[in-house]
Amino acid sequence: MTLKTLMLTTVATLGLAAAAQAQTVGFSQIGSESGWRAAETTLTKQQAQERGIDLKFSDAQQKQENQIAALRTFIAQGVDAILIAPVVATGWDSILEEAKEADIPVVLLDRQVDSDKELYLTAVGSDLVHEGEVAGKWLAEAVGDKSCRVVELQGTTGSSPAIDRKTGFEKGIAGHANIEIVRSQTADFTRSIGKEVMESFLQAENGGADICALYAHNDDMAVGAIQAIKEAGLKPGEDILVVSIDAVPDIFKAMADGEANATVELTPNMAGPAFDALAAYWKDGTVPPKFIQTDSALYTMSDDPAGQYQARKGLGY
Ligand code: GZL
């Protein structure tokens, strides 16, 4: 065998070996209901590419049945792991048991499920109750002893963020009898429904004159509501305080314009810690903790919102 043939054979063998190492991961994403969700998708694809992971992406269009079907397909394809952002918290036991029987590790991203923790490898996400509590405590601080009637835009019904962020906010305002949630309704984490529901709140609350603050479970619903408040002739951020969660670029733009007051950050990079945990698990069976928690920092109008907007726009949102 000539040297050239030997070298070509070696390169080909190493190439095949490298390809054999490339892991295949199925990712069942909820959809694209918010700017934050779009960023999570972008960053997950980037992280997979950087790590040489073959990512099979499925957009469930907000439907649990589509996520379950996607997971069944991934299992049939024999992927090396599954990522899923579960649209709601219940109804996953059976499909997770199928993945476990196929010995395919499942990692939850950004939302939790009510299933037995032994049915998934780990969950990467924030402390959703804490996020709501941070928002509630900020409002309590902002209004002092002033009477404050609050309207609340909830996330997707039955999702862990909608359940836990409501619980957390109520913890945050507990002990402040001057603050009362007077209306609360889901707007499904979207801008358009956030605007619609806020319009109904304004109409029901004396044109908005009786509303002191809006608490939205995500920034996108807050941005939609801000539009409704302005169209009602009121000043968001002044006549009606606005506090929400995610820290997407557009909420900082609203803050810079004086139209929003506070947001609690949620990193869209859940895939980084997820792929790190999977790499260790694939390498030598290292079992990660059941919950890998991401941070929840509070940002207000005094935290250079214009600078935050510039720093974040284009990061996949
Ligand atoms: C929270 C995440 C939520 C975001 C929304 O962990 O699931 O879903 O806050 C997104 O923007 O729709």
TrEMBL record:
Listed transmembrane segments: none
Domain Periplasmic binding protein: 26-281
Position of the signal peptide: 1-22
Molecular function in Gene Ontology: carbohydrate binding
A Pfam family that the UniProt record links to this protein: Peripla_BP_4
Entries under SUPFAM superfamilies matching the protein: Periplasmic binding protein-like I
Predominant subcellular localization, coarse grouping: other
Location within or outside the cell: Cell envelope
One of the record's GO cellular component terms: cell envelope
CDD domains associated with the record: PBP1_galactofuranose_YtfQ-like
UniProt keywords, alphabetically: Signal
Family recorded in the similarity comment: Belongs to the bacterial solute-binding protein 2 family.
PANTHER family (alphabetical): D-ALLOSE-BINDING PERIPLASMIC PROTEIN-RELATED, GALACTOFURANOSE-BINDING PROTEIN YTFQ
Protein name: Monosaccharide ABC transporter substrate-binding protein, CUT2 family
